[in-house]
Design brief:
The structure is a single chain. This protein has about 550 residues and is an alpha/beta fold. The protein is built from 21 helices and 16 strands. The protein has helices at about 1-30, 35-45, 60-100, 110-120, 135-145, 155-160, 175-190, 205-215, 230-245, 260-275, 285-295, 300-305, 325-340, 375, 380-385, 390-405, 425-435, 440-445, 465-485, 515-525, 525-530, and strands at about 105, 125-130, 145-150, 170, 195-200, 225, 250-255, 280-285, 305-310, 320, 345-350, 370, 450, 490, 500, 535-540.
Length: about 550
């Protein structure tokens, strides 16, 4: 709609005056030259209403052009004006009739409006719901083509106006934890089964509790992803560190203060724990006091992997700087670490948007790499990929690929043996649904979630044969029901994600042992999936592993 508005403005400013001028010149250039200036001007205006002399033998070129351009420009400009006036109503009508796989953003907080802008720049359909009709950001996102609805997100009828039942994602970020939780409570009843709800929780204690609940509960139609903004920033920062530091980084030197730095410490440690490799985080005394102490109550193992040092160790080649204080102080700390000969790179986490920080200065040091985590975490790809359900789904796919390759299968035999990012969306959804259903498996196992640590295993839980068989059968039934609901159908040929056909859409009894073992593999993958999001299983002692 905004593109049509721009066309209308362009026509009004440029093409319509040009048509008037051409018409005037054309009438004045008629062979008899008998038309006065006022008559020529009036004749040019009449062109817009398709009123012109038709008995002209050889009309001038300018007049010929104007005879066509004038009514055409007026018609298009009129249509654009109608769309501009009725655009909001048109978008609402289209949403009611065809709204599906769009993104609903409840609350125009900073994260909400930046996410809306990024999504619209990618051409994604966005519906914004906010209770403040005069919010300054509402006009901005509306101009970008987002549908803005004024209403209270705690009211079911307002959420249904946004079609949350068919939305791909719902982002709840009103700026108040209590309101966000209320909105989520309503969404449990109205959100669709294919919808993922991402709700911001600023209070770390509440976020930690809800983080456990979202994994253990599986009775809601939608999937709920409670996120802490600093944790999402930390995840984006660690992504950049992992990509820029190369493989086999087992030691880092960290300087930091505040909530964001604490989340960076925990996130980096959890990723290394999930990989199963030994590691050490070196910190100075001030960082130890600021980060390690507050983390011990929930994660006592932190003291075992963090070493307090006076100087950057000779074996440490990567530095991390993350602080809530000014960018200038952070840059000074990064340059100090970079001056150490053994250090190859220093990654500096900035919370300011790219282009607004002193950290964006170029050429200060070749070793210092600035990561604008305050901006990158709001980019749609990063924001949605860092949800627990996507992280666990990707882990399940990795486990599946490793299991298939161990059986001698290749990408030529099985087209699904590709990287997670290259999978068709339908196959990603299949993995996401298994991740969302893990809570039911935990209940059947009688297992509890405990924070991942060096002494918590990420191996296959001890499951007796009969229970393993029951869980595998349930997983196959769940998988088949999901695919059938999404329009897949049985076909004896090869799996075809485009045609949505699959040869394994049959009862458990009709599966051969190799295919049944794949469902057992899904159960065996759960500990590794949980490890990716910082959790481990505490399973009651049972019979020997099947």
């Amino acid at each position: 709609m905004s593109a049509l508005n721009r066309v209308g403005v362009w026509l009004g400013v440029v093409l319509i005056p040009v048509s008037l001028l051409l018409g005037y010149i054309g009438y004045r250039d008629l062979a008899d030259a008998s038309m006065s200036r006022p008559d020529a001007a009036f004749g040019a205006i009449q062109l817009f209403f398709m009123e012109t002399q038709t008995d002209l033998d050889q009309p001038p070129l300018a007049l010929n052009i104007a005879r066509f351009s004038a009514p055409l420009s007026l018609a298009i400009a009129t249509f654009a004006a109608i769309v501009a006036l009725a655009g909001e109503r048109i978008r609402r009508l289209l949403l009611r009739q065809f709204g599906r796989d769009h993104v609903v953003i409840a609350g125009l907080s900073e994260t909400g409006r930046e996410l809306a802008r990024s999504l619209r720049s990618q051409g994604r359909r966005v519906v914004v719901l906010d209770s403040d009709a005069s919010h300054p950001a509402a006009a901005d996102v509306q101009a970008l083509g987002a549908l803005v609805i004024v209403g209270d997100a705690r009211q079911p009828e307002q959420l249904m106006r946004c079609r949350v039942d068919t939305a791909r994602h719902v982002v709840v970020n009103t700026g108040h934890d209590s309101i966000n939780v209320e909105v989520c409570e309503v969404l449990t009843a109205v959100a669709g089964h294919a919808t993922t709800v991402h709700a911001a929780i600023d209070d770390e204690a509440l976020w930690s509790v809800l983080g456990r609940v979202q994994l253990e509960e599986s009775d809601s139609a939608a999937t709920f992803d409670f996120f802490h903004p600093d944790d999402r920033k930390a995840a984006s920062f660690i992504d950049a560190v992992d990509q820029g530091s190369g493989p086999d980084v087992s030691e880092v030197y960290l300087l930091g203060r505040g909530s964001l730095a604490r989340r960076v410490l925990v996130r980096w440690c959890q990723r290394r724990l999930a990989e199963g490799e030994p590691f050490t985080v070196h910190v100075d005394a001030a960082t130890h006091r600021a980060l390690v102490g507050p983390s011990l109550a929930a994660l006592p193992w932190i003291r075992d992997v963090v070493a307090e040092v006076d100087v950057v160790p000779a074996s440490c080649r990567i530095g991390l700087v993350c602080s809530d204080v000014s960018d200038g102080a952070s840059l000074s700390a990064a340059l100090s670490i970079a001056s150490e000969r053994q250090v190859d790179r220093v990654f500096l986490c900035s919370t300011l948007p790219s282009g607004r920080a002193v950290l964006d200065l170029k050429g200060v040091s070749e070793k210092v790499c600035v990561i604008p985590a305050g901006s990158t975490f709001r980019e749609p790809e990063a924001f949605f990929a860092h949800s627990w359900v996507d992280i666990m789904a990707a882990a399940r796919h990795d486990f599946y690929c490793a299991s298939e390759r161990s059986r001698g299968r290749t990408a030529a035999d099985n087209p699904s043996l590709i990287a997670w990012g290259e999978l068709p969306e339908s196959l990603k959804d299949s993995n996401r649904r298994f991740a969302a259903a893990v809570g039911a498996v935990l209940g059947d196992l009688g297992a509890a979630l405990v924070p991942l640590g060096p002494r918590t295993a990420s191996e296959t839980p001890p499951v007796e044969s009969e229970l393993m068989e029951s869980l595998a059968r349930q997983e196959h039934d769940r998988w088949m029901a999901d695919l059938l609901r999404d329009g897949w159908r049985y076909d004896p040929g090869a799996k075809d994600p485009v045609r949505k056909t699959h040869p394994l859409l049959v009862d458990w009894a009709e599966l051969d042992e190799i295919e049944r073992d794949k469902d057992r593999d899904s159960i065996r993958a759960i500990p590794q999936m949980l490890a990716r999001v910082g959790w481990a299983l505490d399973v009651p002692a049972r019979a020997p592993v099947s």
